[in-house]
Design goal:
Order of helices and strands: HEHEEEEEEHHEEEHHEEE
Mean pLDDT: 79
Length: 299
């Protein structure tokens, strides 16, 4: 469990860096707050923009991430109904050369079970420092610390899987198949004092099925039973909507901010699930990480 948590931190980071760029180096970028202000920027096609993002990713040495997620929904099984509200906020700084990292987070939740409410919050801290050729991770939950060894082989194997699954050739082929689903023009928005291109993607249930049927995965991603996935969607998903926006700095081609919202309804047997809203946002600064030392109380 402890190792899985440590991997999750690195895995989340890896996905953030790799999604949309597909290089063995990684991607992300500066902090963000949205503005409705739109400006004109040098004309560029979406395909060229993604290529420039790939090239810019070669210069990543560190990343600083500010993450926030919120969820609200209802589930029922027979006569029992559950209501859930939750939020997660956190920060993660990582050195991409040594893989040392530090971060913190807070989880808040409330659960309503047939009129009975439960609520709480948890605080977490996490660090990793070099231990010979490996890393030693320290994970604190409300002041209770545990440690875990993460070998360089572990890290390398995981990163190789992500990079193989998102190789550049496959991304370019899949982009051609999905290009009509994206929204993009050369108008920009100001995000965290940066002029940014905006890539958008809106999907409903049928479009999601089309992507699953038509987008190719590389051989290294393993066997995927597409028919089985499509059957689950047909049988269980009654409604579905996902919206994504990615803000890319005009001057550096670094991604500056990600926003994602999801809603939907589903049913499997007597169990019904209604997701009113799941939202995720990530502000990212490239080469501006401040990896903090492991505190004495953690050791």
């Amino acid at each position: 469990m402890k190792k899985k948590l440590a991997y999750l931190l690195i895995g989340t980071l890896s996905v953030s860096m790799l999604a949309g760029c597909g290089k063995k180096e990684n991607k992300s970028a500066s902090k963000a707050k949205n503005s409705d202000k739109k400006q004109e920027a040098p004309a560029i096609t979406l395909k060229d923009l993604i290529k420039n993002m790939n090239d810019a990713a070669k210069g990543y040495d560190s990343l600083a991430l500010k993450l926030e997620a919120n969820a609200e929904g209802v589930a029922s099984a027979g006569s029992v109904e559950y209501g859930l509200n939750g939020s997660v906020k956190g920060n993660l700084d990582i050195d991409l050369k040594s893989f040392e990292f530090s971060g913190d987070g807070k989880v808040k939740y409330s659960l309503d079970l047939s009129g009975n409410s439960i609520s709480g919050d948890k605080s977490a801290e996490f660090y990793a420092e070099k231990d010979g050729d490996d890393l030693k991770a320290y994970i604190g939950m409300d002041g209770d610390w545990t440690t875990e060894k993460i070998t360089q082989d572990d890290i390398q194997n995981m990163l190789e899987q992500y990079t193989k699954a998102l190789d550049t050739d496959t991304l370019e082929e899949n982009f051609d198949k999905m290009k009509d689903l994206y929204t993009f023009d050369s108008k920009t928005e100001e995000v965290n004092d940066k002029d940014c291109y905006v890539i958008g993607l809106d999907l409903n249930k049928d479009q999601l099925k089309d992507i699953i049927k038509n987008v190719d995965l590389p051989e290294e991603a393993g066997e995927v039973n597409v028919d089985s996935i499509l059957n689950v969607i047909d049988d269980s998903v009654k409604d579905f909507s996902i919206k994504m926006k990615e803000y890319i700095a005009v001057d550096t081609y670094y991604p500056v901010k990600y926003e994602l919202t999801l809603s939907g309804k589903g049913q499997s047997g007597e169990t019904k699930v209604e997701v009113d809203n799941i939202s995720v946002s990530a502000d990212i600064d490239v080469n501006k990480a401040d990896v903090k030392a492991v505190p004495k109380e953690a050791k």
